[in-house]
Amino acid sequence: MRSIAGWFLVVFGLIGYGAEIDNLRKGTTDNSAMGFVLATLSLLGGAALIRAARRAKLPPELRERLAVEQLPARSPRDLEKAVLACAKQHGGRVTIAEVATESDLSFTEAKEVLEELSRAGACTVDVTDEGAFIYEFLGLLPREAKREALDV
Asked: Exposure of 66 by Cβ count < 10 A (0-12 exposed, 13-18 middle, 19+ buried)?
């Protein structure tokens, strides 16, 4: 039943799009925006019903595989630990891309954590001639580099 209702809504949405495009061609565009919105809602609702009907037909073990598992939320402390572990591996100097590729953080998460650590004073930021941001953690630098950094 869901599948039939879904296909009906999809066809209704397509007819709605056709009618609104025809109105645009004729120059009668009084309520075209509302017509496009309703046609889009019909298409999306129909597609959702069709998808739900197809999933309902699957065996339970396949349905369980398709269910999206929520990843556990990571605490800010866990995010910082991932960034600091990567920085330690790289001798105290990292880029956003290095952190993102060598940890389970996304590029955006790595950037946000590094910027927050920089604002907190845990690291400094240098910009290369090519425009790359290098985050330098003084506490994680090799001893010789620490002495040089402190002497400057």
From this structure: exposed
| Mean pLDDT computed over 104-111 | 90
Which amino acid type is present at position 124? T
Domain that holds residue 24: 2-66
Q: Give domain status of residue 71, yes or no.
A: no
Angle subtended by helix axes 32-57 and 2-26, to nearest 10: 160
The DSSP annotation for 66-81 comes to HSPPPPPPPPHHHHHH
| Whether the Cβ atoms of residue 93 and residue 101 lie closer than 8 Å to each other | no
Q: Are residues 82 and 123 in the same domain?
A: yes
* CB-based burial label for 146 (10 Å; 0-12, 13-18, 19+): middle
What's the pLDDT at 124? 93
